[in-house]
Write a structure and sequence with these properties.
Blueprint (H helix, E strand, L loop, with lengths): L6 E6 L13 H16 L3 E6 L7 H6 L4 H25 L4 E5 L8 E2 L2 H9 L3 E5 L9 H11 L4 E6 L18 E5 H6 L7 H9 L4 E5 L5 H6 L6 E4 L4 E2 L2
Parallel strand pairs: 1-2, 1-6, 2-5, 3-4, 3-5, 6-8, 7-9
Antiparallel strand pairs: 7-10, 8-9
Helix pairs in contact: 1-3, 5-7
């Protein structure tokens, strides 16, 4: 099966790794790892950015009185835990991986160096970017946009629990319709929960498409990479509803 993309940045939320009352669920990790392995076997170079919301969410802590910068740094450390968990899963599946951290922690991860990251990808290694941008007040969505542009990824693939971007929350409104395409400006103006406004603006300024899809369904990443119409694409194209 020929892949549509050569190099991708896969964005996973921390919550996507949790389940069944566990912060990090081994079964879910295995499912994610299996799909990443399929992508690598298709010849795709895969980089990942992972959130930390399953362990600690800086914004939530800040609303409860904690200093925002301190809270965000704690959230960054949570992403490092998730990165190491995913690294372990991928390596047990036979993949070569590297974790690169935006915060120095030399005993467990490489420092983030753009040229080194690109070299790892060229050699077929999966690169996992931890600790966001290394700066408070910036989300892991923004980190994903930044890293994708730095490594010249062709697309950001944002894995979610739903099949794409909808007019309204499909859990609350079963009649909500899914978008096939959404323009960057519409995503911003409508306040659609694609990525945060800074991340979308970065992608818009650099014409980097965002593909939102449900990775909880086995084989969906492979289908997306094969060019099948799965999920919602956010790009310069005009907004269009599915169906």
């Amino acid at each position: 099966m020929t892949a549509k993309y050569k190099r991708i940045l896969l964005k996973l939320s921390g919550e996507a790794l949790g389940g069944h009352g566990k912060a990090v669920d081994a079964e879910i990790l295995s499912g994610v790892g299996a799909q990443v392995k399929e992508a690598v076997e298709m010849g795709v170079q895969v980089a990942l950015v992972i959130g930390g919301g399953n362990i600690f969410r800086g914004v939530s802590a800040a609303t409860q009185g904690m200093d925002r910068a301190n809270a965000d740094y704690m959230g960054m450390l949570a992403t490092a835990i998730n990165a190491l968990a995913l690294q372990d899963t991928l390596e047990k599946l036979g993949l070569e991986t590297r974790v690169q951290s935006a915060i120095a922690m030399s005993q467990i991860a490489e420092p983030y160096i753009r040229r080194r990251a690109v070299r790892h990808l060229d050699k077929g290694r999966v690169v996992i970017f931890a600790c966001g941008t290394g700066n408070p007040y910036f989300t892991t969505d923004t980190a994903a946009s930044l890293r994708a542009m730095e490594i010249n990824a062709e697309v950001i693939m944002k894995a979610t629990k739903v099949d794409g971007v909808y007019e309204e929350d499909p859990v609350k409104d079963p009649e909500a319709r899914r978008f096939r395409h959404v323009s960057y400006l519409d995503a911003l103006n409508r306040g659609l929960q694609v990525m945060d406004a800074t991340a979308i603006s970065l992608c818009m300024d650099n014409d980097l498409p965002i593909l939102v899809f449900n990775m909880r369904k086995a084989g969906h990443l492979r289908r997306v990479l094969a060019g099948e119409e799965v999920g919602t694409v956010v790009s310069t194209r005009e907004t269009q509803l599915a169906g």
